[in-house]
Every structure is written in C-alpha cells, then in structure tokens.
Amino acid sequence: MPLDLIDSPDFDAGYREGLWTLNFGPQHPATHTTLRLVLKLDGEMVVEAEPDIGFLHSGFEKLAEVLDYNQYVTIVDRMNYISPMANEIAWHHAVEGLLGIELTPRCKYIRTIFAELMRIHDHLLCTGTCVLDLGGATAFMYAFNEREKIYEICERASGQRFHTSYTRVGGLLYDVTDDWVAMVRDFCKTFPRAYRDFAGLVMKNRIFVERTRDVGVLSQADAIAGGATGPVARASGVERDLRRDEPYLAYNDLDFDVCCAQGGDCYARFQVRMMEMLESVKIIEQAINKLPSGPVFISGTGKEGLPDKTEVYRSIEGLIHHFENIMPNRQMPSPKESYYGATESPNGELGYYIVSDGDFKAYRARTRPPSLLHFSLFSRMIRGCMLSDVAAVLGSINIIAAELDR
Amino acid sequence: MSEFTKLKESLESKLPGLVTAWSEFRSQQRVAVPASHIAQALGVLRDAGMDQLVDITAVDMLEYPGATDRFEVVYLLLDTQSGQRLIVKTHINEPDLKLPSACPIWFGADWLEREVYDMFGIVFEGHPNFKRLLLPDAFESFPLRKDYPVKGRGERHNFPIITRAES
Amino acid sequence: MATQIDKQLGDNVFLSTVDAAASWARANSLWPMPFATACCGIELMSTAASKHDLSRFGSEVMRFTPRQCDLMIVAGRVVMKMIPVLQRIWLQMPEPKWCISMGACACTGGVFDTYAVVQGIDRFLPVDIYIPGCPPRPEQLIKAIMDLQEKIKRTGTYDAREFKLRILPDGPSRFDEDELVRIRERNGLQLEAPKYDPIH
C-alpha cells in the first residue's frame, strides 16, 4: 500500500488496526546496545515506528552535580563509549570556556590529535558494525585491527586503553612521550593502506550498495529542523562543521575539508564517515608535524591546573598547590554564570550546558547528546522502508545508548 | 548590521516591552522571556532565521544562591546559515509548571521536551505525544530536581529475585 | 595378565564417569549470549574480533537468541528499566546455563551509584564468574571463560544436579530487610516490600 494513500484523510480507518505490530529489541544484535522499537508493519513495509528508549538511563547528569569538574571526566568517558576521549575533550572544553582558561599550545595540539584519532575510532566501529549487520563480517574484523592500534596509542599516553580519563581542567594528565609521537606517525603511515582494504571490500560491493542506497532518506529541511548535526546532517547536505565554523583547540591552524554528501540516505552517511576518516588522518599528520614543545598544563600562579606529580612528591610548594586544587572547599572558584560549550564530536554536536553557583563543581551540567536527536528522527527515516532496512538505518545513524539515555 | 542586532530588533519590535533582559557572558548572547510569551518569542526567532533548536533543558534553582524562581527552562537556538547562537531562558514556579510546546515551531523539540518532563516534571502543553521518555512509566519522582537524592528512594532495589533453583 | 591388557590397550582406553565426559564436552563448546548494554560490550566485540579472537578458547559462536545459548555474558551496567528484560532472557535460556558478570558496573554498579542503576546483577540473578575492571581487558574476559571452563569441568553440570541445593543467589552478604522498609516508610513511599533486598 503506498504511503501517500495511507496518509490521505479519507482512507479506511480499519486499515490501521489490521497492521502487524512487531517488537524490535531491547536485546537484538542490530541495536548494538539497548533500545527498543515498536514497528507497525503492512506486509514487510514499515508504516510506523515508535522508539522506546531509557534502557541505559544511569543518571549521568545527577552525578555531575556531586562530582567536581575534574572528577566528572571519568563519568563522561562512559557516555559515548566508542570514542571516550572525544567526550572528555568536549566536557573540558565547556568547563574551560566557563572558567575562561586558555590552554597551552602543546595541550591544544595533543587534544586535537586525540580528537581526530577518536573520530577515526568511532567511524571505524560505526561503519564496521553497519556492514556486519548487513551480513559482511570481514570488514568488521578489518576495522577492529585498526581500532586496536588506536587503543594502544591511548594506552601509551594515559595508561588505560579504553576509558582514558586523560584530560584535566587546564591541561592533561601526563605529557606524551617521544615514542607516542612515533606511534602516531606510524599509524598515519599504515592507516591509508588499511583504509583501502576496508573501503575496497565495502564501497563498491553491490549487495551493500543496494541495501543502503535510497534507504532511510533524511531531507535537508528535516535534518535542520530536527536538530541533526555531524555526519548525519552533512550527509543530507547541511554544510556545517563546528571545527570550521566555531574553531576550537588547534583547528584554526590546520587545513582540512568538510565532508558532505547529497543523498541523505544510508549510503551517503556511510560515505561521509569514510571520507572523514581520511580527513582526520590528514589533520593528525599536520598536527603531529607541528606539535609544539612546552608545558601541557597552563602555568598558574592561581589554582588553575594541577601541578606535576614529581613536584607534588618532592617539594612543599608542589604539595600545597596540589592540596589547594584537590580539597573541596579550597578549589578554584568559578563565575556564577551559565555557559554552553560545544565541540564537533564524531557523532555530531556534543555540547555541555553548565550552570555554576561559584564552586568548582557544576550546579547543573546538561549534556546535549547528538544521538538523542538523531534517534528522534529515526521514525521519519524508516517510514515506507522494508523491515530489513531497519538494521541498515540503525547502523548508519550510529546510536550509542549510553549517550542517548545518559 | 550584525546578525545579533537584527535578532534583537525583531524580537523587541514584535514583543514590545516584554523582552528586556539581555545579557552576555564570554560572547554568548542570552535573553530572558516571560513564560507567558515564550511561544510567541520562539516563533519570532524562528522567523528571524534561527532554524535549528539545539537543545531544551531546565535547571532546578532550589538551592541556587539568590534565585527567586524555582525552574529555569533554557532553549538553545542556532542559525545554521550564519552560525549565530542565542540562549533563551524562561522561569516558571510551582504549582503552575506548564509551558507551551515548541513542537509546532521545530519538530525536533519532541523528545527534548519529553526529557525535560521526565527529569523535572515540567508539562509542555500541545505536545503531540506527551509521556515519560527515559524512565519507566511507573516511576513517580522527577530525579533531576534538587530535592531528590542521588541514590534514589529505593526504587533500584525493588525487583523480584531469581535463584538457581527457580531458573 | 594385567601386563597383557596394558600391552594391548595401552593409552587407547581410559576410564571416567559420564558426568566428567559430559562436563568436558560442555566446557569446550560454550555458546555465549552477549547481553551487551554498554562500554563492556565494545570490549566484548574486541575480544571476539581479529586481534584477541575468542574462538581460540572453545567459545566459538556468539548467538543473539537466548534459546540457543548456555552462557550469558552481561557486559555493562543494568538499570531499572532493563533488569526485567535481563531476567526474562535468563529464564528463556535452556539448562544447563551459566552467567558471567563482566565489568564493575554489572558486578557492583561501579561508578554509577545513582537512583537508576542496579547495584550488581547478582542481587537479582545467579552469577558464576565476576570480572573486575572498567571495562575489563579482553585478556581478562578470556581468562574468565577459561576459569568458567575449569569450573564446569570440576563441578559438573549433568542434569544440573549440583544447582538443586542452591536456593539463594551468590553475592554480597544479606542485610536486615526491615531497614529498607523503614527507609521507605520514612520517605513516604508506596512500594511493595521486597522479598530480599541488599543494601548498598
């Protein structure tokens, strides 16, 4: 039954009662995480989809009100867990905006490199599992090969391979070493080859192309009014990238293109993600060549920034500085204001709206999750598609439940 | 004339005398609008070019020093053409926790408003499908209010237990 | 005489019980069901993917339907809305079955000591192996599966007899139920009193 016929007002009302109702999730391989869809089917065509979310609602925003700006970084890590460091960078970007801190050049560059590594990290998993859901297991293995290399880079810098908790207000947990730089250079050298293998398997694969082309179309007007950002919006032709439009970190000094596509279908979203990975490698190469020397923490006479650990253990001044930073009633005061800071995370605009009452912890810290708005557009995208397209559309918009539900 | 002054003028000419509380912090523009006129103000801003609703959120001002109103509802708007952002705030108090829905203006407001209701209990009138978004329907409290404890009131322990013998 | 038999049979025959043989077979053909909710699910994927390759350890096929599985790996935090789903999936799995609680959140609630997160799935489900870590490394998951294989071989599973005596779930020590009831009364809550309720 064509959709415009169903939508017409004089259509038989009994038709809706005759539709099949299918429950999809919360435990289903294509949902990757935990979300539920109630689908109304006419034969194999999806007429209505009602998402039901909240299966991973863990009270992140309530925790933000009891933890201070440095402690909460361990929680935001667990928000978009396929690119943990992108969340840390976004959170401290907002906090530093509120406190009015200008980072050191070295810290900016290291954070930029990590932000781009995380973009590759995220897109690899998203594209890999998207192909896996459509029946191609090999590409998934290729993607995980490269992801393991990024895990090792993270581990070398921070000591943890997954939830790094690497950024601090005004700096980083540790400075990076020379062998970390060598690892990143090595990754930039080997990644394009692995990318070719991966893209060669998928991009012109007829089964994949036919299952994603013209499926789950999101128009440009819908993308803007519905609040879509990041790759999902860019695939619908919205040319907007916070890295270029509201430059933060070191993006002003680096040369890169904003990747856009026109179709707005699953294949366009897939293409945008694939192109962005190559752009990210380009950015990392430039940044690692320009990596300035110097401290990673802002030098403060005041209380911004933690002191170096060797100073804490060996000098009384360092110890006092550390104490002043850590004790709850002695920390740096923040302005009694509210501030919205946003970054271009791999998934879209990840922002934090922080309200401060003067302490070194947030009175309220709202996360602006890109996944939530993308998933609210899902029922528009899937309307009129086949049941088997649900997996393709879910894979292409990259829903991360922990970010969706918080 | 910059984008921002255009916005300011169009808002002040359409709603004369109501929109006066403009402020700026680290080059972010904010405006406070009375709750009775929030729908009109958002409509005017939409027509003036703010085509994307970035976020809707609320803040419970119960323990905020010097606050006079209980809830502050915040709309983050963006013009995708020029990149101009604007933060619109409005204040409401108990027992009348009601605001008009922004869904007719931007359909992206749908889930954002449901989440605000879920967390704070603020009702958006005129919303097409208004119910809880994240928490189970049987949940009775609004967890992001300041008078709700972080560890909850025991709801997380209230489930049947399955033992080896039973399963 | 004995030497004659030894000479003829040698290493070709060994004696055992049916239990041991069944346990040995079961231990090396575990079919896990990944109940992946959060971050640990990604590490679970890493474990199954190319570098770590879980199939080397006799845990080959991941099945996404509970009816084909005998090992549930709960990877990630489980929240209020999810625990009824988890319990239902557990009940759908055929006996004999085992459960691995992967990561700090599934074991204890981890960093999420909030209103929504269940403080350890062992409060509502039986668990065999706990893996610490946030998230655990793939090596830890592989070790846990090897430990579980040891456990299956050692304790046996034939007809699930050894489970008959277990009435309560394993886990942290119990507490005085009345305390929780008192807390709820103080807060004016109308929740029905639970059968068993551990305190955090």
Q: Could you describe the 3D structure shown?
A:
Chain A is mainly alpha-helical. Chain A has one domain (60-405): Cytochrome-c3 Hydrogenase, chain B (Orthogonal Bundle). In chain A, 49% of the residues lie in helices and 12% in strands. Chain A contains 19 helices and eight strands. In chain A, a hairpin with a 2-residue loop joins strand 4 (167-168) and strand 5. The longest helix of chain A has 29 residues, at 105-133. The radius of gyration of chain A is 23 Å and the shape is globular. The mean pLDDT of chain A is 86. Chain B contains three helices and seven strands. Chain B has a five-stranded mixed sheet with strand order 1-2-5-4-3. Chain B has a two-stranded parallel ribbon with strand order 6-7. In chain B, strand 1 and strand 2 (28-32) form a beta hairpin. Chain B starts with a helix and ends in a 42-residue tail after the last strand. Chain C is an alpha/beta fold. Chain C has two domains: 18-169, Rossmann fold (3-Layer(aba) Sandwich), CATH 3.40.50.12280; 174-200, no CATH class. Chain C is 36% helix and 9% strand. Chain C has seven helices and four strands, in the order H-H-E-H-E-H-E-H-E-H-H. In chain C, helix 2 runs antiparallel to helix 6 and helix 3 packs across helix 6 (138-155). Chain C starts with a helix and ends in a 14-residue tail after the last helix. Chain A binds chain B through residues 53-54, 57, 59, 61-63, 65-66, 97-98, 100, 224-227, 238, 240, 245-246, 335-340, 342, 349, 351, 353, 355, 357-358, 363-364, 366, 368, 372-373, 375-377, 405-406, and chain B through 25-26, 28, 30, 51-55, 57, 59-60, 63-65, 74, 76, 80, 83, 85, 87, 106-108, 110-112, 115, 119, 132-136, 143-144, 150.
**End-to-end Cα distance of chain A:** 39 Å
| Radius of gyration computed on alpha carbons of chain B | 19 Å
Question: Percent helix among the residues of chain A?
Answer: 40-55%
Q: What form of chain A results from the Cα inertia axes?
A: globular
CATH superfamily of chain A: Cytochrome-c3 Hydrogenase, chain B
Gyration radius of chain A (Cα, Å) is: 23 Å
Helix/strand/pairing class of chain B, anyone? alpha/beta
The number of helical elements of chain B comes to: 3
Quaternary status = heterotrimer
Average residue-wise pLDDT of chain B:
85
Distance between the termini of chain B: 71 Å
Main sheet attributes: strand count, strand direction, barrel closure of chain A: 3 strands, antiparallel
Tell me the fraction of residues in β-strands of chain A, as a range: 5-15%
**What top-tier CATH class of chain B fits best?**
Alpha Beta
Helicity of chain B, as a percent range = 10-25%
> How do the helices and strands follow one another from N- to C-terminus of chain A?
HHEEEHHHHHEEHHHHHHHHEEEHHHH
Strand content of chain B: 15-25%
